[in-house]
Amino acid sequence: MNELSVSHLLGIKDLTREDIELIFATAEQFKEVINRPIKKVPSLRDITIANLFFENSTRTKLSFELAEKRLSADVLNFSASGSSVSKGETLIDTVNNILSMKVDMVVMRHPHPGAAVFLSQHINSVIVNAGDGTHEHPTQALLDAFSMREKLGDLAGKRVVIVGDILHSRVALSNALCLRKLGAEVMVCGPATLIPKYIERLGVQVSYNLREALAWCDVANMLRVQHERQDITYFPTLREYTKHYGLNATVLNELHKEIVIMHPGPINRGVEISSEVADGDYSIILNQVENGVAIRMAVLYLLASKSQLNFKNN
Fold this sequence. Notes:
Layout lengths: L16 H18 L13 E6 L5 H12 L3 E6 L7 H15 L3 E6 L4 H6 L5 E7 L5 H15 L6 E5 L6 H12 L3 E5 L15 E3 L2 H7 L2 E4 L15 H8 L3 H5 L6 E3 L12 H4 L6 H22 L8
Parallel strand pairs: 1-2, 1-3, 3-4, 5-6, 5-8, 6-7, 8-9
């Protein structure tokens, strides 16, 4: 298989295992490129990519922009995080702007689930979902799984626990879907108020005890509490949350085994994870950042190829 089965990357749910393996194999090649003295390739020269971010973002936006520039694409950045325009009007305005600018590919983050799907149905451009509300964040899941596989090898049978605010996390959903397709066992852990009711239907286990979950797992992916998406109080205090679900050196030392520590960022140090753990020997958080560029290069390159855009080979 040398091309994706999809024309857009809207969610992990749309990808086959073969798609994921192709993205990983391509990312391995691009990781070699970005570690060379000359880090650019002409693969997407003359291709115009618009980054449309309707929510604040630092890491994801910078990672996509760097990936696009490494591929020699022309890049347009649009930020509408402060806009008060309603969802429908904003997206329709976006559609019209994209059509008039002759943009080939669109990377979009939006606060409403399904926004990327809506856009893909209304414009003739390749769409990459960079996060839609509490729904999906497919490139984060791909880079997380890629980073795990670099560290552990084949993920079949490996045990991964996702800890934290599962209810409001698009990262948790995409990770669970991706890891299950790769044969891993997945557990979510957090306060009962932050675990969605449907989650077990995805073949995911649930725990409310951090120490038990860590004793079970090979990998712990720590998520932050997403206060900006919460309209009610889900636990008494941050101090209480940290006491029961914060990962620190004391908790790790009680395990008497090594586990891989991950975090999609941004990190709330001292809340869901302590600095000594985030910066410690078990952590692959910085590997995730590096791999994010390679994965996003792979996704953009493969989607351009699938859509037969006028791209040039390396």
